[in-house]
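hey so i finaly got around to running the thing on GATA-type domain-containing protein from Angiostrongylus costaricensis. pasting the sequence first so u can double check i didnt mess up the copy paste, my clipboard has been acting weird all day
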Amino acid sequence: MAVPTVQNLRRKPTAPSPASDRTPTIRKLLQQKKKRMTAVPCHVNSVCSTCQTRTTSLWRRNHLGEIECNACNLYFRKNNCKRPVTLRKDEIMKRKRKPRVDSSHPTGISMTSTTLDIKPTITRQTPRLFT
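ok and heres what it spat out for the 3d tokens, dont ask me to read them lol
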């Protein structure tokens, strides 16, 4: 049996395989990934089990595993009863956000243009020793 020496334990660096060997496999993987991305979404034909709507921003599953729209599911979680059909709206509401005033400040308020007159209103009470 040969005794291992430091020189035997050190491995010689192997030359990396040429990039051309790896390129076809990378291309194939990218093509397969693109094919998976372009697959039909799973909720194309989904219908809410409560209000029978077909459009929602997010599909969820209720405690029984049935597919529900976002509004019905959140209503049930909050109120512990099914969402009435009278609350159903045909179109999804968009948020009405205020437009930005100043693009350099995210809140729209510039601290250089506003003056704050804040005066402390601390009153000092003397302790009553004898009541």
